[in-house]
Amino acid sequence: MAESSAKKEALISRVRDYMTSEPQTLGVEHSLLDAVLLLRRANLRHIPITEDGRLVGLLSDRDVARAAPSLLTPLLPEEYNRVFEDTPVGKVMTKNPI
User: Fold this and answer.
1) Are 83 and 27 a contacting pair, CB within 8 Å?
2) Residue 22: its pLDDT value, please?
3) Where are the beta strands (DSSP E) in the chain?
4) What string of H, E and C letters represents the secondary structure of the chain?
5) In this predicted structure, what is the pLDDT of residue 47?
6) Is 18 in contact with 33 (CB distance < 8 Å)?
């Protein structure tokens, strides 16, 4: 019986087995451009957003896609880029994820 319970214990997944222990974060004041660069550079899909050291939101790659102007919209490249430069992640993130 002891062997059976040891096998069961070995099969149980724990959050710590999958989580990132020291995740990269951004503050609410960072731009959407900062977020896109971090998502791509670190190959992430989600970024915890902090304010005064507290988790206040979560920004996903889908949040970024929803905030981006459609490529079918007649915008000049500078205007398209300005959206990413001028939009703070605090406006786009999912608030209070916990």
Assistant:
1) no
2) 87
3) 26-27, 46-51, 54-60, 94-95
4) CHHHHHHHHHHCCCHHHCCCCCCCCEECCCEHHHHHHHHHHCCCCEEEEEECCEEEEEEEHHHHHHHCCCCCCCCCHHHHHHHHHHCEHHHHCEECCC
5) 97
6) no
Taking phi first (over 0 means left), then psi (-120 to 50 degrees means alpha), and beta for anything else, what does residue 82 get?
alpha
Instruction: In whole angstroms, give the CA distance from residue 26 to residue 5.
Output: 42
Task: Write down the pLDDT at residue 6.
Answer: 64
For residue 24 the two structure tokens come to 């990269």
Sheet holding 94-95, edge to edge: 26-27, 46-51, 54-60, 94-95
In contact, 27 and 38? CB cutoff 8 Å: no
Structure tokens at 62: 């889908």
The pLDDT, as a whole number, for residue 13 is 75
Token pair of 65 as six digits: 């896609």
Under-70 pLDDT residues of the chain: 1-11
